[in-house]
Amino acid sequence: MASLALTSLYLPSLRSRLPNSESNARIRCSSLRSSIPKSAIFGSGVRTSFHIPSSLSNEAKFVKPGLNFGSSGRNLGGFTVRASSSSSSAAAAVPAPAPQPWQGAAIKPLIASIATGIILWFVPVPSGVSRNAWQLLAIFLATIVGIITQPLPLGAVALLGLGASVLTKTLTFSAAFSAFGDPIPWLIALAFFFARGFIKTGLGNRIAYQFVSLFGSSSLGLGYSLVFSEALLAPAIPSVSARAGGIFLPLVKSLCVACGSNVGDGTENRLGAWLMLTCFQTSVISSSMFLTAMAANPLSATLTYNTIKQTIGWTDWAKAAIVPGLISLIVVPLLLYVVYPPTVKSSPDAPKLAREKLEKMGPMTKNEIIMAGTLLLTVGLWVFGGVLNVDAVTAAILGLSVLLVTGVVTWKECLGEAVAWDTLTWFAALIAMAGYLNKYGLISWFSQTVVKFVGGLGLSWQLSFGILVLLYFYSHYFFASGAAHIGAMFTAFLSVASALGTPPYFGAIVLSFLSNLMGGLTHYGIGSAPVFYGANYVPLAQWWGYGFLVSVVNIIIWLGIGGIWWKAIGLW
Q1: Within this chain, do residues 527 and 482 fall inside the same structural domain, yes or no?
Q2: Distance separating alpha carbons of residues 333 and 340, to the nearest angstrom
Q3: How does it sit in the membrane (predicted)?
């Protein structure tokens, strides 16, 4: 107690003798311990430490008056104050907190996206184009650049594009968000929810192991089994989004997982990347082979009749498409296998292992049976929906309702499907902007400009039609829907092709086929694109790059070999 009293007696004296700049410094007693005998505190030279400001060094040590600790000490009221580096060493030993990483947009891609929009915004508006249409084009292209470079996730980029269109009064709020009422984005989102149940119940693994046991000795054989299975279902299910998302995406994901190819762990190229890209690119081929394989195909047939008064029947369509279609279904998987190969190409033990896995799984569980029954119900409604007056998205909602009511899939799991909601957002945004480009007259202006340009070249009908075909095909980069593209440009291009000497029926058939094949260019050009791209196995740059490569191959096959076949059956 005497030592504590003495310490408290000296504190005021010490504080008053500190320099003015340090007069408010906090002094803290750190080493007095009640367990030390009173007589030992000062008599034994035990030091009492107080925290002194940095101008007096990091720590001052107070010792018994009269004891000499060298010239480094300072005498303050009978106490010798001596500097120590122990505190500074301790402080230095504590690492500074790491700065928080930037979690916002990637700056360079963001600048590139914004710069694209600004530059086009201030380009003089061409004659015949409204100011609103040109502004929307600037925002649309800026959004596309953002989707390619990805300064933010795709849904966020699309939302920024919609926000810019509303902020600049280019679109009203209801117009900008109108496509969220379109059935196609919702059908794609529902497909992801189905995939969740397919995998969760184990039904996906069971079917995947069956496929592997039959075709899994090679990756190429496995791929072809999926490609031709999808082509066989194509004429019966008139929605490519339903086929891709409701049936084949869950199956392909299960196959990838069963073969050890997962997203995010570096094994994407083991099998998944090639398989996803192959199934997508062949889905656009199978859609082009039958009148009932894609929802927009009947629109092409209707516009053909309205323009040239000739009918394209189901048999006529299939007969013209069968040869180039089958060749494309064979060539495209093999091409991708060469240029974008899976790292695992042969696995002779896979069928045996798959059969062992099936034995371990045992009989189907209750949830697997419910999932299988729901899938059959949904597919049945897709096949016979036209007769029953039930569209594809309604059938999918009914199927999901069964899964939710039975607990096979929970709503919390649906909410956790971030990719589904992200895809719904960006796909709906692009549909809305592309749709209003058409409504504002930009697509009509573009079609008329192309028609005047090609018509004024004075070329043969074959060369003129070739130019028209390429312009029609690659203008699909500006469309998020095959139906929108057909509705906007099909009639104008068919009319000009006919006027330039192209056999009208031949021109209509070719444009109808290309209206499907062009969907393979991007990750938003046809209903199956967001489904397979959303699985996240293939980076966006590779998706677009291989999409362009396959488009060239398809054009060569369909116009080259297809042209010979069409000549043989008398189309021209």
Answers
A1: yes
A2: 10
A3: Multi-pass membrane protein
For residue 82, what are the β-bridge partners?
61
CB 503 within 8 A of CB 548: no
What pLDDT was estimated at residue 156?
A: 92
**Strand, coil or helix: 74:** strand
Q: What is the pLDDT of residue 469?
A: 92
So what's the pLDDT on residue 197? 86
The torsion defined by the Cα of 430, 433, 436 and 440, in degrees rounded to 10, comes to -140
Asked if 249 and 299 sit in the same domain, the reply is: yes
CA 144/CA 266 separation, integer angstroms = 28
Residues 6+ apart with CB under 8 A from 478: 140, 434, 437, 443
CB of 361 within 8 A of CB of 355? no
- Domain of 111 in residue numbering reads as 107-180
SS3 567: helix
Q: Are 278 and 334 in contact (CB under 8 A)?
A: no
Separation of alpha carbons 116 and 168, rounded Å: 16
User: Is 258 inside a domain boundary?
Assistant: yes
Give the burial string for 282-318 (b: 16+ CB within 10 Å, else e): bbbbbbbbbbbbbbbbebbbebbeebbeeebeeebbb
Contact 241, 528 (CB under 8 A): yes
